[in-house]
Amino acid sequence: MGDSNVNLNLAQESFYISQDFLNKYNRPGPRYTSYPTAPVWQDNFGPDDLEQVFAAADAAATPVSLYMHLPFCESLCLFCACNVVIQKNKSVALPYLATLKKEIDYVARYVSRQRPVIQFHWGGGTPTYLSPAQMEDLYGHTLERFTIAPGAEIGIEVDPRVTARDHLETAHRLGFNRLSMGIQDFHPEVQKAVHRIQPFETTRDLIAAGRQLQFESLNVDLIYGLPYQTAERFAETVEKVLTLQPDRVAMFSYAHVPWLKKQQGSFQKHLPEGMEKFCIFRAGLQKFLEAGYIYIGMDHFARPTDELAIAQQNRTLHRNFQGYTTKAGADLYGMGVSAISGISASYAQNYRDLHSYQEMVERRGIATMRGYRLTPEDEVRRAVISRLLCHTVIRKAEIEQEYSLAFNEYFAKELELLQEFSRDGLVQVSPPEIRVTMLGRIFIRNVAMVFDPYLEQQKLESRPLFSKTL
């Protein structure tokens, strides 16, 4: 049973913190789209290992989630840390799509048509880089090899700058029912700095077209912490977003990782940091709460009637590489360059560069670069971290029953560490449960990090691995 007063209480919070408090908790940490996180995965996990995982999952007859990565963009947004290929000449999509279809064929051999696909997502890059005819061809190819369940969540990421009405009409006709689009920020100076000029009117008109075509859900992405942002400017962006009435909002912290993405170094001296960045986040948070959105946590907001909000209240919310989802229990098959699969107690990732991906698929059928098989302890800790991030509460008895352990003994070290979090007002620890407070939702990654023993050994790495938690 959920806490129906949480959002009301959140809206009444002022969220003023001290500089010392921020310095203490604003430190590098994972976003926990998986546990263990990707730096722990192993290069000796290859295609043979993934085929074994495929076979076991098919025998278990679990539901299926499909993800396809379409990496192409016409121009580079300088804040971007995704795996993208910048190319104005759209002929590059043709050989990629041919390879992707070969990978689809190979993976489909390991997925019985009796297993329903309950979630299907195209991400990127920019999936609408493809022409409507290419979209139709790829979707049709997939449909011939997998069984899409009635009522499946079928989503596509669209860029308002390059998406035409023909794209939306084609997507809707094919069966896509969820649109997700990037906004990031509407202020002209911010847009210029990050090389993403996207007028409000362009976004407004695309959302209007999506509503006219009756897509079931329209979601938008924002980023706080971009160059030249201020709390006042970001509040203005959020006010404009609220006029669009999206069903869900992802308000991500800008991940500054110039050691991975060199283009980010071009605006380093103009980035808001520390308390200034927190004030930008707080401005957005309060605007969405005042407008009645539920703060799911980990940067996400949803309308009270949205299935994400309902799932969190019912404690059925789940988290995978696509973010928060209501489709718990599905095995995720990722296809395309850099795509990640999460199947039962294993993870696998495809090669991240186009040449290696295409060469491997042509030669082997799949392009596994690395992966990981969870240990029994990993599975326990994954369950704890997942429930923390999805439900904001860990009920000790549930973990004890499911994994045959004594929670207080198993996590004695973690409970000791949480005492300081409790004193700082981030969690409430009681005999039956660990509950994240309203302030703790903002720093929930830090709370999750307490349960991650791999972080200690990762501190020994000579290079940074994660962006800061805020």
| CATH H level, superfamily name of the largest domain | tm_1862 like domain
- How far the N terminus sits from the C terminus, by CA atoms, comes to 29 Å
Nearest-integer average pLDDT: 92
Radius of gyration: 22 Å
Provide structural commentary.
The chain is an alpha/beta fold and 470 residues long. The protein folds into two domains: 6-30 and 376-458, Arc Repressor Mutant, subunit A; 39-373, Alpha-Beta Horseshoe (pyruvate-formate lyase- activating enzyme). The chain is built from 19 helices and 19 strands. The strands form five sheets. The protein has a nine-stranded mixed sheet, with helices on both faces. A three-stranded antiparallel sheet has the order 14-15-16, with helices on one face. The protein has a three-stranded antiparallel sheet with strand order 17-19-18. A hairpin with a 2-residue loop joins strand 14 (340-343) and strand 15 (346-350). Helix 4 (93-108) runs parallel beside helix 5, helix 4 (93-108) crosses helix 12 and helix 9 packs parallel to helix 10. It is globular, with a radius of gyration of 22 Å. The protein starts with 5 loop residues before the first helix and ends in a 12-residue tail after the last helix. Mean pLDDT is 92; it is low at 1-9.
Chart the SSEs and their pairings.
Layout: H1 6-12, H2 19-25, H3 47-60, E1 64-70, E2 72-73, E3 85-86, H4 93-108, E4 116-124, H5 132-143, E5 147-158, H6 165-174, E6 178-184, H7 188-194, H8 200-212, E7 217-224, H9 231-244, E8 248-253, H10 274-290, E9 294-297, E10 300-302, H11 307-314, E11 318-320, E12 323-325, E13 331-335, E14 340-343, E15 346-350, H12 354-364, E16 368-373, H13 376-391, E17 393-395, H14 396-403, H15 407-410, H16 412-423, E18 427-429, E19 433-436, H17 438-442, H18 444-449, H19 454-458
Parallel strand pairs: 1-4, 1-13, 2-3, 4-5, 5-6, 6-7, 7-8
Antiparallel strand pairs: 8-10, 9-10, 11-12, 14-15, 15-16, 17-19, 18-19
